[in-house]
Design brief:
Length: 523
Amino acid sequence: MRIIFLVMLFCSTVHAQTVSKNIVDFGARPDGTTNNTIAIQHAIDKVSKLGGGKVIVPRGRFVTGVLHMRSNVELNIHEEAVLLASTNISDYGSSLKVSALIVADNEKNISITGKGLIDGQCDLLINDLYVRLRKGEWYDNEWKFFNDWHQRRPSELNRPQMIHFKNCDGVTLKNIHLQNGAGWIQNYEKCKNIIIDSINVFSNTFWNNDGIDLVDCKNAKVTNCNINCADDGICLKSGDRHSSCENIFVSNCKVRSSASAIKLGTASYGGFKKIVIKNIEVYDTYRSAIAIESVDGGVIDGIDVQNIHAVNTGNAIFIKLGHRNKDSVYGSLHNVFISNVKVDVPLTKPDKGYPMEGPELKYPPTYKIDTSVVYQSVSPWNNSGIDSSAIPYPHNVFPSSISGLPGHLVENITLQNIEINYATIADKKANYFPLDSFKTITEAVKDYPEFSMFGELPVFGFFVRHVKGITLKNVIVNMKGEDFRKAFLFDDVKQLLLQNTKAAGKIEKPEMFFNDVIYTNKK
């Protein structure tokens, strides 16, 4: 049954602007070298004290360190202006306590507008961090020095985000360009009444470059955005067991990612409720076009996804209920409606050639291959390849999946008008897990959730396990290459309804496998 609900969208109500101040009048210099933090901050503070208005960043290249947004202030960046992040790591704080470039906490009616550019200057900033680490002037609990710096990365606590707004009411970002961040590009934490419209994010030269992160936010509208980043494109997260993302509307966005394009999770302590995602274009994306995950005890309820078109993308749909949190609280995942999705899965790695590719899969570093066991199910390790001793995990294409846990079922899922095209050739020499071993497929209860988490599977199209109440209507998987596996595998599934659901191409017949399944109907 389709989920229908009203998403209430609230616009920020900025006080009537009575003041407009140019940062040059406060001493800012557009020479690309002078640190203008004091001048720009003075302008922001002045406008806020006068009751609100606009702070203008005019033509030119203005270097700045950390800026604190104030209530009722609009930071307007001219289309020929560039706000350059300082490349001196000490301008952001001290070891493991660095600030984002633009921050706000408990402010109201704040906005960043204009068609100008905010450049995080990631490469230069990270190089400064490496120099200090090598000299022993800076501490990092994750970093270790290698001749090839790509082999180790500094902690996220030492890599400044570009925007971090927390506990704010009335946030607007419109038309701006953001690029080259050292961590999350935008982090909106426990904010409400958010409008993000027509912004461009380009940041794919370092790790953890999420394009947009909404963390336990309420009443947000994200529209007409173009995202190209090394990590998740548009990501909803929940870090508080007593909070959640709620009333979120995402529409008309174009996304490329070396992780997942649209993602609910991984952090999922509180949950996600009343989420609408529609009209999304995805391309050259390493992982899933759409990922919906409750693995930390959170509640997912009322997700409506429509009109997703993805090309050269590693996976179409990933829905997972897990339990990686250390306490006894199990999450729940129910009432998800996904329709009008078309995904083309390529033969080769989708993000090949981008500056920061998604990591190749490996066996867990401590895993020992037991040659006495013919078939072993193991969740591959998808960390960043930083352990050179880890053994590569060869595999065939992974299916879309919808899965819960024994005794904790995903409930009320509808997939309608779904087409997934696979351009692949499966090879038993690469990896082989036979159908009659399906009962030993790992549950991967506490593993990091990704579509590859179950390892090699005897199915290429859809893997469905531990689900109650699921409808597949007009769902088609096309194998343009050749595969020796089944197209669909249903295990521990109650109330299954199949309508015009089928597979095409050179595949194992019959195309579906069922175990412990109770049908509502089958057509």
